[in-house]
Amino acid sequence: MSWNGQTSLRRLGILGGTFDPPQLGHLILAEYTRDELELEHVLFVPVGDHPQKSLTRLPLQHRLQMLNLAIANNPSFSISHVDIDRPGPHYSADTVRIIQDAHPEAQLYFLMGGDNLRDLPTWHHAQTLYRNSRLAVMKRADEDISPNMHDDVFPDLAAHVDLIDVPMLSVWVSSTMISKRLRDGKSVRYLVPDAVLEYIHEHSLYSVQKADHEAIDS
């Protein structure tokens, strides 16, 4: 479901990524953050040209279709083409600026996992990013992260971070791990939405084998 950007919002979440493939970790991050911070809407922002990945595993059309399937049942989720309809490379600070220009009345929340907060000093224009949007960071049960963990680099960062503690999560699912399991012929059931898994098998993506498909049909 694409979003036309016409609705006036006060609290808007942004979740960027390659979504290659979209998986339950993305949906958990978006939904739990939406609920905790009372966000009115969450934009999923797929990139065409990721600055920190030499290439995506799948072409954009497959990633977009899988993302549409993944979020289809949640009216609070939609897809923004802001990083598709412009040339790359795409940096999060630029994405936030463009969305803020379109919605000057909205408080923006940039959604991320704890690993992203840990790596924030390596991000392009990180200070611009967190000064133009609050960082909504999901913390796993076993993660040693805090809003002030980069005080030596970004002394004002803590004032711009909302930490969402999710003690039920001890393992963060990654799209890289999922694609590897698919290539190895291992099950990824319950790691991706069923509709996404069906699409992967229907189009023979990630060199997938038959075992997982048979498990769904059984």
Principal-axis shape: globular
User: Which architecture would the CATH scheme give at its second level?
Assistant: 3-Layer(aba) Sandwich
Determine the number of helices (DSSP H or I, runs of at least 4 residues).
8
Report the sheet-strand fraction.
15-25%
Instruction: Supply the helix-strand structural class.
Output: alpha/beta
Helix content: 25-40%
Poorly predicted ranges (pLDDT <50, ≥5 residues)? 213-218
Number of strands: 6
How many structural units, i.e. domains? 1
Rg, rounded, reads 17 Å
Instruction: Name the CATH homologous superfamily.
Output: HUPs
The average pLDDT is: 88
Largest sheet: 6 strands, parallel
What is the C-level CATH assignment? Answer: Alpha Beta
Spatial order of the strands in the main sheet? 3-2-1-4-5-6
CATH topology: Rossmann fold
Distance between the termini: 30 Å
SSE succession: EHEHEHEHHEEHHH
Description:
- With 218 residues, the chain is α/β, with parallel strands linked by helices.
- The chain has a single domain (11-171), classed as Rossmann fold (3-Layer(aba) Sandwich), CATH 3.40.50.
- Helix content is 33%, strand content 16%.
- It is built from 8 helices and 6 strands; from the N terminus they run βαβαβαβααββααα.
- The chain has helices at residues 24-36, 60-71, 92-102, 114-118, 126-132, 175-183, 194-202, 211-217, and strands at 11-17, 41-46, 77-79, 107-113, 134-139, 161-165.
- A 6-stranded parallel beta sheet has the order 3-2-1-4-5-6, sandwiched between helices.
- Helix 1 (24-36) links the parallel strand 1 (11-17) and strand 2.
- The longest helix has 13 residues, at 24-36.
- The radius of gyration is 17 Å and the shape is globular.
- Mean pLDDT is 88; it is low at 213-218.
